[in-house]
Amino acid sequence: MESGYFVSNGNKIKLYSKNQDVTNRFPELHNPPISKGTIIDSELISTDERGHPDFEACLARFNSLKDKNKIHVCAFDILFYRGDNVMHLPLDRRLELLEKELRDTEYYSKARSFEGSAIQLFEIVKSFGLEGIVLKRADSRYLSSRSPCEPGTKGKRSWNWQKVINYSITHDILITGFSKRDYRWLIGKVERGIIRPLGTIELGVTVKARKMVWPKLQNSIIKENKDFVYVEPRISCTIKHRGYYKSGLMRLPVLEEIYL
Fold first, then answer.
1. What is the per-residue DSSP string for 79-102?
2. How far apart are CA 49 and CA 54, in angstroms?
3. Range of 232's domain?
4. pLDDT tens sequence across 209-243
5. What 3-state class would DSSP assign to 126?
6. What is the reported pLDDT for 151?
7. Inter-residue contact 34 to 67 (CB < 8 Å)
8. Are residues 139 and 38 in the same domain?
9. Are residues 40 and 149 both part of a single domain?
């Protein structure tokens, strides 16, 4: 999935991602089922054979005009409705306008919202192996992902919208080296008697964590190249992550705990 897409149908269709015009990358999306002057906020998704969002397929399509992965727009909010700014309206009212404005097609659909127990919904999402849910107050105004703070709160992040990620937890991950250029660690896991590389980790690696492991890393150096220093795998840790890429590397690993 690629987030932060805005679809505007003014005099002509425009698609934006992180303030970049990406209209020409997706010709199949050039006829959105919305009125002129309407802007929607959405996710661009590509799905696998199970119907689950496929992050790598979406990224491949985004990065290459030659890629043939099918792309679908899943709209979850509306900013302008037929020329009128509606970002100040409460969420439940904006969703009514979105329901009225956008009809589902082969390439466009609306994200489904639910009222009730977030815990029960999250458990259902977990059972299907999906990425997570977003909790939003029904009376909340629109907040851009690039400016997730309520006006007048002096930059304090709003609690009106909260993302709840379905993380996987993996134990017995080994630190196998560290970067010469930044604070990333190399990580791997023993499988069938050998250490399988899982990529690098930086998220969750605090100053305290770096200071804790630094002496042991320095005393266990095996070799190095221009980018990394490799060490004997004496330090293990627990990591939360969002699954694996097709290459076998961990997706967005976050350090949870270290075992010296």
1. EEETTEE-TTS-HHHHHHHHHHH-
2. 9
3. 168-259
4. 999 999 999 999 999 999 999 999 999 999 999 99
5. helix
6. 46
7. no
8. yes
9. yes
